[in-house]
Structures are given as C-alpha cells and as structure tokens.
Design a protein that fits this description.
rod-shaped, 5 strands, 5-stranded antiparallel β-sheet, 7 helices, alpha+beta
Length: 281
C-alpha cells in the first residue's frame, strides 16, 4: 500500500517535471553531437531527473521551514507557559525544564538540569514529594499535591505539583513529567480568610460575653439600689455601697469595650425584661 502511494507520488512529480521541462528548452551545449534517437532520449531523461531533483529540493526546503516554524511555536509555548514544566527520571534527576520553572527558581536553566529535584524542595516537605513519587511509580495514577520550593536566594514559595508517569515503551526507562504552579497568592488569601473567620468567631464570643456581663451588672446594680433604700444610711454601709457601685462602673466600662470590639460580629442582645430581681422583705 505504501509502495503504491510512493509510486503514485513519484509519477505525479515526474509528470510535473516533464511539464516544466517544456517551458525550459535545452541549451546548445546539451544537444551538440546528438544524432541518434537514444542519445536524445537519454538527454531527455537526464533533464527530467534534474527537474525532479530541483522540485524535490524545493519541497524538502518547504517541509523543513514548516518543521522549524512548528518547533519554534512549540518551544515558545513550552518555555513561556504560565506554569513550570519538568522532566525527571526514576532517580529524581531533572532531565529537562522550561524557562518558566527556571524563572520561578531564580536561576538559569542550566543550573536546574542535571540536579536532583529534591534539592529544590524545602527540607520539611521532601517526604511529601518522595511519598507521592512512590505512589506514582507503583500505580501510574496522576499525583497532585502541595509543597514548598526553595529559590536560588533562599526564599520559599508554595507550589502545587501535578506528576504523571511517561514511558515510551516497555523497555524504555520511566520518566516523570511535573507541572509546577505557584500558589503562594492563593495560600495568602486562604490565610487571610482563616484569620477573618477566626476574628469573627472571637467577635461573636466577645459580644455574647458582653451581654452576659450586662445582664449580671443590671441585676447587681438594681439589687444594690434596692438594698440602699432598705438599709439604714450610715457611714459604713455607704462605704460598702460606693465600693459596689465603683466595681460595677468598671465592669460596665469593660462591657462597653467588649461590645465595641464585637460590633462587627453577629449576635443577639439579651433583653433585661425577663430577669427576676430578688424581693426585698
């Protein structure tokens, strides 16, 4: 089948060459001394073959240019992708990396290739990487996980790694393709959200405590006022009542501060109307 296609392509090329030869007549030097029919035929064949070679060379140049353009497009897409790409062998040695990953690490690509990938992982997170690589080699299933990478200047950033197993054939060595995404900003946003949720919970708690204080202070203040009306007014009792009022005043101020802190929290104020004061006999 392939041979038939090849013969068909060759016949078409020859037909085109013969057609082009009709527009390119032979020069005097090519026909000098040619008196026989065989010599004329031979010259004809040589010229057709020459044109065939010329057309083949033009076709090869066109294909070569297309291949180079495709290679340049692929190289540009690979090197300047928004994520880092790595190829790591079974021993963990980096065999290839794009410019994006080298930029993330703050180093030249030549400083990455040929080095163990574990060298770029923060010490505390290396177990995460090796455990997932082991799972990948055993199961062949895609592994996705987060760890911290250390750049050339010693700073760290959070990265999400997606690892897949590549194997050309059964006898070929295994390779691991790794996609590296910088998720530091995402982690910062998650931390800020967690902080906001924590502060909101504290604000709710503070609001609840403040209202409980208000309830207790209302009872204390009201009871003190009732006692003051019932107990004979002398110097000693007045001193006691003043001390109680000063303490309740300080607690009232603290309650106001708690409510001011909790003004962003969601809580319900507790009404004082249901509170029962002690009955003075």
């Amino acid at each position: 089948m392939d041979k038939d296609k090849e013969n068909s392509g060759g016949s078409e090329l020859r037909h085109r060459a013969e057609k082009q030869m009709q527009t390119e007549p032979a020069g005097p030097e090519e026909i000098a001394g040619m008196s026989t029919k065989d010599m004329a035929k031979m010259i004809h064949e040589l010229r057709v073959h020459q044109i065939e070679l010329k057309m083949q060379n033009e076709e090869l140049r066109r294909i070569q240019e297309e291949l180079e353009e495709a290679r340049d497009r692929y190289s540009h897409l690979y090197d300047f992708a928004p994520v880092g790409y790595l190829t790591v062998n079974e021993k963990g040695i980096v065999e290839g990396a794009n410019l994006t990953f080298a930029t993330l690490m703050g180093m030249e690509r030549s400083a990455v290739v040929g080095k163990p990938f574990g060298r770029f992982i923060q010490r505390e997170d290396q177990d995460v990487y090796y455990l997932n690589c082991q799972r990948l080699l055993e199961s062949g299933a895609l592994q996705s996980f987060t760890l911290r990478l250390t750049t050339n200047d010693g700073s760290d950033f959070f990265a999400n790694l997606e690892c897949m197993l590549i194997r050309e054939n059964v006898s070929a060595p295994k390779q691991i393709r790794i996609v590296v995404s910088d998720i530091t900003e995402q982690k910062k946003l998650e931390w800020r959200l967690w902080q906001a949720q924590k502060m909101e919970s504290i604000a709710k708690l503070a609001g609840g405590i403040a209202h409980q204080f208000n309830n207790a202070l209302f009872v204390i203040t009201a009871t003190t006022d009732l006692l003051e009306m019932q107990v004979p007014n002398d110097e000693m009792t007045s001193e006691y009542f003043d001390s109680i009022k000063k303490s309740t005043g300080r607690m009232t101020q603290l309650t106001r501060q708690l409510l001011a802190y909790a003004r962003g929290g969601k809580y319900e104020a507790v009404s004082y109307t249901h509170l029962t004061l002690p009955t003075m006999q």
